[in-house]
User: What shape does this take?
Amino acid sequence: MRVKLTSLLVAALGALAPSAFAADLPIKAPAHSPAPVQSWTGPYVGLAVGGKWTDANWTTTQLVDPPSPFVGAAFIDASSPDRFRPQGVRLGGYAGYSWQIDRWVLGFEADAAWSNATDTHVGVPGCRIECLAGFPGPGVDSSFVRSSWDASLRARAGYLVMPELLVYGTGGVAWQHAEVSGTCANTFDDPLCLESPPFAVKTQTDGHTRTGWTLGAGVERKFGAWLLRGEYRYSDFGKLEGVLFPNQPVADPGADAAHYSVSLRTHVVTLGIGYKF
Assistant: This one.
């Protein structure tokens, strides 16, 4: 009986031994492969908010042509040229497509934005101090330059300093809508308006849409399908040219009062959030 119990005990220990030995072995943790890095290739859209600073240099090139038979010839005084600095908030959107080639990202982008940046000055440049002998000062005259909507179509080229961080440059063609405005008094004492009833003052606002070029740079960070960016761009739109208060009635028939030339450049700083499809 004692021999039989001993045999059963030895058999039971033999059966448990492999399990007990295996329990003493270290358990190897399952391998975790790194999360795949998503490609930058594909279309995207976004919204941008920021500021726009406009550099507008107004030069009056001619006053009252031909000279008025009533008040004589006006001359351009030292208030021309005059520097206007419209600045304001800029709100817009953008869309584009990117191709990733190793650590380089190439693509194109279009954007459009709205702003209402306006800078108003007393008097009209060139006739603010004394553009006609005996009639000094601007009176109620005023002038402004406004920088409103803009748009662009650009190429982009960037380098991935990290898989999710892009540093890029951008450049292309741009469009800017701007307004040039002047207000003068309908009185004989004001050489810009003279007597032009029935209103006490006369305001003329010229709208211009100019084509120019733009260059900029930015940084963009990728969070999955979301893109967060910061960008700066400089744009040059050449010169806006026109005539304020042409063809004066009554007192000065057929006269063009103020010929102007306004050079226009803009600086834009934006923050954008986009989604890549």
User: Anything to note?
Assistant: The longest helix spans residues 2-24. The chain is about 10% helix and 60% strand. Helices lie at 2-24.
